[in-house]
Amino acid sequence: MTTQAAYLEDVNLVERCLGRVSGAQEAAARDLFRRYRGRVHAALFRILGGNADMEDLLQETFVQVFASLKSWRAEASLATWIDRIAVRVAYRAIGRRRSRLEQLSDGDAPEVAVATDGPAAVMARDGVRRLYVALDALSPAARIAFALHEIDGRSMAEVAEVTGASVTATKLRVWRARRSLEAAAARDPVLREFLRDEGGAR
What we know:
Elements: H1 3-17, H2 25-48, H3 54-68, H4 78-101, H5 118-135, H6 140-151, H7 156-163, H8 167-187, H9 189-197
Helix pairs in contact: 1-2, 2-3, 2-4, 3-4, 4-7, 5-9, 6-7, 6-8, 7-8, 8-9
């Protein structure tokens, strides 16, 4: 699908959700949810890691999407606009979770969903868990920038657009996150091995 065709499809979908064109609003809302659910879930998961509240956070994101849909002006793609809402939800989730995590030891840190077949998978699960423990020590802004760029694979420009920061500020946040992870890995051989296997904190 071309960029122009995708844009027109987004506009039509939003207009139907708002009841501005013929077509059932409820069906249009379901279409929007189905189209973007996976994208939002992936972004939240990569920012937050394993989270027992993931479905609640997903629902919170789409409640805000539908409540704010009239404000979409198509300066950005619908996907980018929804990403911005998901990032705001993630910011709040980090804040809520941080106070809880301060009460936990590393051994009590939340698990991240990874396949558990065999020793390699167990090591991978432990490595991912330790990665997200290390990410918990970052500022929310640095954590989100790092997760979207390094884990989700988005460009610096896209991360900057989604987070409402400049590209320069985004690069600085990612750099600080990498340095923090390198320091954590220097103290933790399991995390160090995991980062090396995954390409490291480049």
